[in-house]
Amino acid sequence: MTDQDDLENRPLMPDGFDDCVIGLTTEMTPAVIYDHDKVIESIMNNNEMDHEEAVDFFEYNVVRGAQYEKGIPPIYIRTLTADEIHAEYE
Q1: What's the distance, Cα to Cα, between the start and end of the chain in Å?
Q2: Cα separation of 57 and 42, whole Å?
Q3: Which of 31, 47, 49, 75 is the least crowded, having the fewest Cβ atoms under 10 Å away?
Q4: DSSP letters along 17-80, please?
Q5: Angle made by CA atoms 44, 50, 54, in degrees to the nearest 5
Q6: pTM of the prediction?
Q7: Could you give phi then psi for residue 73, rounded to 5 degrees?
Q8: Closest CA to 13 of 3, 23, 26
Q9: Would the pLDDT of 62 be above 60?
């Protein structure tokens, strides 16, 4: 395996969100899983932003930024109960 292969097969971990990690996928090329709400809260707290500004920052700088890096992009999930999901999509 070359150094290039190593870069492309490593899970990406954006700086500053280690406390938002909730796990790792179990696939052949694992991705780091983050709690979306904790990431937004972290951005708000560390950058003196309101919720809307933090979401915009997250989408533009964190999610979009991962597209330009070599590696397996992280997965961001909202932790909801089945009832909460049903209520949101009914």
Answers
A1: 48
A2: 12
A3: 47
A4: -GGGEEEE--SSS--EEEEHHHHHHHHHHHHT--HHHHHHHIIIIIIHHHTTSSSBPPEEE---
A5: 55
A6: 0.84
A7: -65, 150
A8: 23
A9: yes
